[in-house]
Amino acid sequence: MKIVIAPDSYKGSVSARLAAATMAEGVLRALPDAEVVQCPMGDGGEGTLSALVTCTGAEVRYAEVLDAYGELRRAAWGWNPGTLTAYLELAEACGLQCLDISKHSILDSTTYGVGQLVRETLDAGARSLVLTLGGSATNDAGAGMMVALGGRLLDRNGLELPLGAGNLTKVDRVDLSGLDPRLEDLDVMAAVDVDNPLLGPNGASSIYGPQKGATAMDVKYLDDALETFAAKVASAAGADYKDYPGAGAAGGMGYAAKALFKATLKPGIQVVMEQVGFERALDGTDLVITGEGRLDGQSLAGKTPLGISRVASKKGIPVVVIAGQLGDGWRASYQHGVTAAFSLTDGPMSLQEAVNNSSLLLADRCEAVARLYSF
Hints:
The chain is of the alpha/beta class. The protein is 36% helix and 19% strand. It has two domains: 2-40 and 286-373, 3-Layer(aba) Sandwich (Rossmann fold), CATH 3.40.50.10350; 48-269, Glycerate kinase, domain 2 (Alpha-Beta Complex). It has helices spanning 16-30, 48-56, 90-94, 112-124, 143-148, 204-208, 216-237, 249-261, 268-276, 278-281, 304-314, 351-356, 358-373; strands at residues 2-5, 35-38, 59-66, 72-80, 85-89, 128-132, 152-154, 173-175, 187-192, 264-267, 287-295, 319-326, 340-343. A six-stranded mixed sheet has the order 3-4-5-6-9-10, sandwiched between helices. The protein has a five-stranded parallel sheet with strand order 2-1-11-12-13. A two-stranded antiparallel sheet has the order 7-8. The two termini are 12 Å apart. The mean pLDDT is 92.
């Protein structure tokens, strides 16, 4: 019997890699002779880099970069010398997970550190780049990244503007002539988990700005700033991507990936499954167990368990989801290939108790699933 274990991380609790290991342990208690394949997954958010390097065998490298507010940070990235493919997680450079946003203004945020990481990949000889765009603390539509790669933001006097999303209202001209020429030969795939445009009521500033500390006044200011920036980029690049689905991802980084790199934008879970060869891993598989912190109606938009269930169900493979919590609308997952879904907890307990015991609970729940499936 072959069982594939393919969880995302359980946010605030266990990484996808640790979740896969503990889930496999539980399965093997019940089925010691089973072939258990561990395949940690991610949908483009925080932790996706770990899943990618684990399943592709890529090296983990580190670079000193600037975070969203200009402080030095040691950021990880992945490198596969065999395929000349680099893996970058935006959140490693300018993610929310390492910041106290109450101490900063989103108007000062910048993606300069992401550009520094891209330069690292170019220096290594990368020909392909997989860029995951979840978990950002920024809202500058990649302006900082552009500057780090040789672009310039000029005011009406021809002077270079300082970094920061709030300064984009002052952009009179975008100069792309100094962009690193190696970008021309770089094939970029950007993992996004939303389809929002860059601007307007459904855009980057309005929908995601408040999660990063933006006030109502900040949202209006930032939307105007991104509109100004996008117009100048369109003039310099000869193409306008502000309405492209996914342009609003990660504070406008979907827009930057398209405008600067001519990147292909795909749902994060689809990108990860392609990179790790997930469909090949399903050959001869009898059961798939996946999961993440919460399964609900919003999971249908492209979260890991649903992406996996859609692929596995086409091959006639049953899929069991172990979720930290089953929220409103989770039953709709049955219409998308999920065979059964279970909550991680086995009785009344506080959130902190569940977090503290998540590895034990995962192993126990997977043992129970395996015992049931073996009959």
